Amino acid sequence: MPTHLEKLLPEFTPAHRVKPNTGAQKKILMIGHSSETLRLAEKLNQQADGYMVLGCIGLSNREPVKKHRHAGFLIFGDLSELEIFMDISPVKPDILLISDPEIRHHQILKCIYFARLHNLEAWARPQLAASFFGDLKFSHFYGHPIIKIIHNLNPFKLLIKNLFDYTLAILAALLLLPIMLCTALAIRATSRGPVFFRQSRVGLNGHEFKVIKFRSMFQNAEQTSGQLLSPGPADQRVTPLGRFLRKTHLDELPQLFNVLNGSMSLVGPRPERQIFVERFSQAIPFYSERFKVKPGITGIAQVYGSYHSRADDKLIFDLNYINNLSLTVDIKIILLTLWNAWVGLFVRETKSPRWTA
Asked: What CATH code would you report for 4-150?
């Protein structure tokens, strides 16, 4: 009776298979305890001359597995022991092979960035590929289709993104100049203080820059209250006009000049203050990955999440975006942002249209 895996995997001729490595063996650490995973591990150790399976690590500690050897390789309990394996194993793996069909997306993410942290190749079967994997290369490995996960950002995509940013930012600044002038006059007329609010944020490669926004709070509000993270819609520091500006995102318009000076992009992870970056970096693994691209005026976490989403949830969105950079995704996010701004003018609360990025 064919297994679930055998039904999914087509037959390949020997010409399509990866040839055994004639040099030193590549060491594999496999993710999963399933019978399919163990069978593949046994097959690799028996037939793949250029590869050797060091061990298999399970997905969850709900069903503890005592460490033991099986067919010449070590079996561990769960993903929390990945670091332990790297510390105690005298032989280090070259490849992290994600092969368990029961693995969840957040576990895949943990594995991918564990591989990046330890400079390992990350391989996965096609049915396990998730949208946040990044650039993918399809290959075959001893009769099994796999996906090689490439971590480097595509320089051509970054060039196209920068050209798109500058072109659209210039056009938008010219088109929206009357609205920005009216907004500036309204701020000046309704509250004391400067029109613009400048604040240090962390951007590309962790470098700080000054983000520019229309002032939506009373003058010197942060000097009185201190720095707050997501204080909520009832924030008493915000002026009546400021509530409207935030609801419609008009307070973000001056960031077009941040795009023009090269410190921001139209679309990307939203920039945070240094104090919060330090806090999140200590608490959330791989938080610094979001600094691989310029921060954006808007982002996928803003249109698919919410202002009050947890930082680790926003990180999943941001890594999804970073690993799947494309002009099409940027255009969709910009259109969704404009939709949200338009809805903010007339509707108290609504859902954004479902549009997969």
From this structure: 3.40.50.720
**pLDDT averages per 10-residue partition of the chain, 357 residues:** 32 29 74 83 79 84 60 76 82 87 75 82 69 57 65 84 97 96 95 93 95 90 59 73 88 96 96 92 80 94 73 79 88 90 60 38
Residues 6+ away with beta carbon under 8 Å from 59? 31, 32, 33, 78, 79, 100, 102, 103, 104, 107
Give the whole-angstrom CA distance, residue 88 versus residue 284. Answer: 24
Domain chopping of the chain, boundaries? 4-150, 155-346
Please report the pLDDT score of residue 340 as a whole number.
Answer: 78
Residue 90 CB coordination number (10 Å): 4
Q: What is the pTM of this model?
A: 0.60
CA distance 156 to 136: 16
Predicted pLDDT of residue 12: 21
Report the C-alpha gap between 320 and 328 in whole angstroms.
Answer: 14
Cβ(190)–Cβ(214) below 8 Å? no
